[in-house]
């Protein structure tokens, strides 16, 4: 697989993962924690695919196949890092919304999300 295709895989999978995480937060905000967690699981799969592509590049460079500097590769790395950070934060938001939702249900009052 050529460098540009690997880079585009990283960008595409990372973008999908980030979108899934943000959608998961929205589900949690509405109280649908099963869908929220399913989105995080799906995002994990996308991140794993992006990471696999990244690992191919790292392994080839470690074997002596040097690549020229690529701004597109830097961009792809940014996307992957952002997706991982968003996933980690989404997990926290989902947990927090679940605690808040449980407290509201236990207290008998309702908050419009």
TrEMBL record:
This is Phosphotransferase system (PTS) lichenan-specific enzyme IIA component. Keywords: Magnesium, Metal-binding, Phosphotransferase system, Sugar transport, Transferase, Transport. It comes from the Bacteria. The active site is at 75 (tele-phosphohistidine intermediate). One of its GO terms (molecular function) is transferase activity. Binds 1 Mg(2+) ion per trimer. The keyword Transferase applies. It holds the Pfam family PTS_IIA. It comes from [Clostridium] ultunense Esp. Its cofactor is Mg(2+). The keyword Transferase applies. Mg(2+) binds at residue 78. The modification Phosphohistidine is found at residue 75. CDD domains: PTS_IIA_lac (cd00215).
């Amino acid at each position: 697989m050529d460098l540009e295709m690997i880079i585009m895989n990283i960008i595409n999978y990372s973008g999908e993962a980030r979108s899934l995480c943000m959608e998961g937060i929205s589900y949690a905000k509405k109280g649908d924690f099963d869908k929220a967690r399913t989105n995080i699981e799906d995002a994990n799969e996308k991140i794993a695919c992006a990471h696999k592509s990244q690992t191919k590049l790292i392994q080839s460079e470690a074997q002596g196949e040097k690549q020229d500097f690529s701004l597109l590769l830097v961009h792809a790395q940014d996307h992957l890092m952002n997706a991982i950070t968003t996933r980690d934060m989404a997990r926290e938001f989902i947990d927090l919304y679940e605690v808040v939702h449980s407290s509201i249900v236990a207290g008998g009052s309702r908050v419009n999300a």
